[in-house]
Structure formats: C-alpha cells, structure tokens
Write a structure and sequence with these properties.
Distance between the termini: 10 Å
Helix content: 25-40%
Mean pLDDT: 95
Shape: globular
Low-confidence stretches: none
Number of helices: 11
Amino acid sequence: MLAVVPEVWAHRGARSVAPENTLAAARAALAQGAHGWELDVRITRDGAIVVAHDQGLRRVTNIAGLPDMPPRPKHLVSHLSLDQIRRLDAGSWFARRDPFGTVASGQVGAEDLKYFAGETIPTLAEALSWTLGAGFFANVEVKDMLGGDDRGLVRGVAAEIKKTGAFRHVLVSSFRQKSLEYFRTLCPQVPVGLLMDETALRLPTQEILVRLKDLEAKALHPSLGGLWAGRIHDIRAGGFDVNVYTVNQAGDILRMVRDGATAIITDYPARTHAVLQSLLKDQPRG
C-alpha cells in the first residue's frame, strides 16, 4: 500500500512541451495533470518582477535579432526595463531549439508551435493571477541576482503575493538562505523551501535539519542526485516536506514514491502523472 503519493509540480511549467516559464507552459502543466508549477523570478532594471530562469535572455527570446535593444552584454533581465522585456518573443525559440525533442517526435505539433509564437515573458503578478484563477499552485523560486539587488527582488516577490492574495497558493524557494530569511520577515504566512544542489547536500542530514529549523522552513527542495536511500525518510521524520528536483525518468519517479517524497518537480508532468496513476491502479482495494 502506498503511504504517500507525491504531488506533481511542473518544472518551469511543462517545459518539455511548451516554452519554459511562460503561461503557455503553465497551461500545459495543468492540462497534463500537474498539481502546480515551479517558476523562477528576477527583477528588471526598473524594479518589475518577471518570470525568467536565466539572467541572460538570448537563449529563450528573440532579443539577439531586435535592432532597438541594447548591445549584447546588456541582454540581461537586470539591464532591461519591463517595457523592453515585454516586447520580446519568448515562444518562437521552442520550435527552433526543440530542447526535449518533442517537436521532432511529433508530440508538439505545428498548431502548438504557431500558438507559442509571440508568447511573452509574464510578470509575477500575471503568473500569480493565472494560478489563482486556475485553482493551481505555484512554487516561486527567487533567483540569485549575482551581486545585484537580491533584497529588492525579495521585497518585490512579497509585495506581489500580498497584492494578488495568493498566500495559500504559493511556496517560495531559493538556494539563498538569506533571501528566504528576509522573505519570512516580510511575508511570514507564506511557506518557504530551501533549495540544495548536490554539492550542498554533502552536508550531514542533521546539519541540513538544523538549517531548516533555523529558517522555519516548510520543506527541503533537494537535487535528485544528492539523495541516498533513507535520506528523504530522515528529513520527513524531522518534520519537513521533501520536494525533489528534477525527476524525469520512470525509475526515478518510482524511487521517489518508494522513498516518500512529498512532491516531484519534473519537466514531464504527463509522464509522472501516468506513473503515479498506474501505481494507484495497482494498489489492492479496501
């Protein structure tokens, strides 16, 4: 009998079938049976909070081909105004790059690609408003501004959550514990999750538990590669959820179920949902 069935959170939206960190990816995640979506946020030159993973925008927009944009070294979120970012096409690149091979395989068709063209980078306010309207959930990851205005970003995230009233539909995560500590002073009613990569996860589990307790976190968000057998159990026994990133393969999904993960953060929400449904179907009844 399954003790826990993890939730499915779409990594940057369902980015295997739609341009990452766009509302198109969020809609695809909802359609594929996810419980929520993970999105990344950064702050613009003029203080707006936008949904973007990279500091640079050349990978996922057409900024390189626009003549009225600043020179290449300034193709960064923090060097652009919201107005400039809103003029970028954040969807057409998906057909060209086909990052997960889903266009070549036919999983993403011509009509979908036509729909993605012209997709914009959403603001956090837009992302949260859509999330609320859809009855969805958002894991908002506050990025490291690499020497930029981290506190301004945190203040902006807290302000947008308060403005939209999304308190019960959001969790805020970050690799930067200081950012989460500051966020908790501004918005203590919203849960936080501490992200840890494989290097950080070399710490003994007890030290990680101390960090989580000091932060008053709800969850640890560990990299899949930093988890050994029994570790999720120990962290959950300490009173914390464990939401694991990035889990894409069926074998790893099954291992996360067996080990008791609270949520699976994945690029393939449909695949993950199907594996979980298959497990539930195989469970003995009553």
